[in-house]
Write a structure and sequence with these properties.
By secondary structure, the chain is an alpha/beta fold. It is built from 7 helices and 6 strands, in the order βαααβαβαβααββ.
Length: 205
């Protein structure tokens, strides 16, 4: 087959205190209770994923720990390749702010489904448009390295939105209309002439 197949998984739910803030690229822990309660979901997803496949994670521990949970759930243990450009949106100085204390001085209107517009650049951070650009470069690099193969990527909600936006060539504000659940599967294909979106936010189990 000529197409390169991407299987993108959003990491497991983070712990309660982290969910109350804009954590971005902060290395926050996972919710231990949810990891236990959702074992059947991990088993179903592990059985859904292709074998063999190249496995890619980001530098943040929540993606590595999610991959390891999938291995415990039945997928054969794999070597994990770390790709920094698939990390979550860097919210700069606004990381760690509680949702109740969102930045009061935005240069652009907030998005309906996200505290920031797609072109808003937080101080010391990056916009969603920036994320789409870097994730797109990372995906094309993986295509060049693993053309015609299956690639499983454990990443983040923002990065997966960016991957879909890259595949569809849509702007950042459009990408922010996508809801990406934890432990959901998004499937993309890179054909020689174009990208194809197979599924978004597929929930197993």
């Amino acid at each position: 087959m000529d197409e390169t197949r991407f299987w993108l998984i959003r990491h497991a739910l983070v712990e309660e205190n982290a969910r109350a803030m804009l954590y971005g690229t902060m290395d926050v822990p996972l919710c231990p209770e949810t990891l236990v309660a959702q074992v059947p979901m991990y088993q179903s997803l592990a059985a859904r994923l292709p074998q063999p496949a190249t496995w890619v994670v980001t530098p943040l521990s929540r993606t590595v720990l999610t991959a390891e949970a999938l291995f415990r759930a039945g997928y054969p243990t794999q070597t994990l390749t770390v790709e920094p450009d698939l990390i979550e949106q860097n919210l700069g100085d606004w990381q760690g702010l509680a949702h109740a204390h969102l930045p009061p001085k935005l240069s652009l209107p907030a998005h309906t489904f996200w505290p920031l517009g797609g072109e808003e650049v937080p101080p010391g951070g990056e916009s969603m448009a920036n994320v789409i650009a870097r994730v797109g470069v990372a995906l094309e690099k993986l295509v060049a390295l693993h053309q015609g193969k299956d690639i499983v990527i454990v990443s983040h909600g923002g990065a997966i939105r960016a991957a879909v936006a890259h595949a569809l060539a849509v702007p950042a504000d459009t990408a922010l209309h996508l809801s990406v659940q934890n432990i959901s599967l998004t499937r993309l294909e890179r054909h020689p002439a174009a990208w194809r979106v197979i599924s978004v936010n597929e929930v197993c189990g």
